[in-house]
Amino acid sequence: MDPELYLADLEAKPASLTGLAATLETGDPFAALPDDIRRVVLLGMGSSRYAAGAAALRLRAAGVDAVAEYASASVSSPASPDTLVVAISATGGSRETLDALARHRGRSFVLAMTNRAGSAITEGADLVVPMLAGEERGGVACRTFQHTLGLLLALRNRLTGAGLDVPALLRRTAEATDDLLERRERWLEAAAALLDGPDGVYTIAPAERLSSAEQSALMFREGPRRAADACETGDWSHVDVYLTKTLDYRALIFPGSRYDEQAMEWIRRRGSTVLTVGGEPPGTGGAVRYRHDDDPGVALLTETLVAELIAARWWSDHHRAVTAGAGR
User: Which range of residues forms the domain containing residue 258?
Assistant: First the structure.
């Protein structure tokens, strides 16, 4: 893992998204799916599971029996000929996902989504869909997370007949991503300073975009190795509010929940520090806006970049400090 290469991976997001959009315009990667699918089971770990959770919720909202499961669970949905199993692994080698997949090969229709052609997850799969995110040389799943979400939205189109123009959404996301990258010198330093506290970072998002909070917290843990945890906005008042009374509570909030104000009321009362992304509820310490941030689809695919860039800044600063110390 390397902080400078990780930053380069982030900077390559707009071009990568545009490439994925162009590919989806030329054909449907899910065209070979059977028509008699009754249930959809999405399997993955880490970032893959976060994206799967967002997709499963959207499939259920469209009337599809869909669930996102920890691939590591010893008890899970049974295999059956009318079950579509979507196994997601950027590297194609996640041990837990491969183990879970073994229960379904030959008994369910297996769709493998990976960023590595010929990897173990593709063996015996009925259909393989490449993520097309390119090599992530920094060692962190960032572009693959974004591409997974985009492809799962295309899968929802295939299964439900939804008319979402996914290539157009990906192009708007590329514009939003490019906007955040181009203007980072105007917001990044202040945002990083605002969240830089002794007790970690707490990320909060509505259920429909919980993946944004989960992925953002992971980025803080994985790169700069900061304490971080994710919470759903409505649930926050039942499970995390208590921390605002005892900690130097620093929150990264992705607005859009009907319960934003409920959380903000407690945060203001306790004098906690908040950075919002894509909106500006009253009482925040700072806000990062970006192009098209009023589009929920763009928000789902874009907003984690704020946390990713802050993580890159902290990680790089720590790496330089360690290197300088070693040289003395």
Answer: 183-319
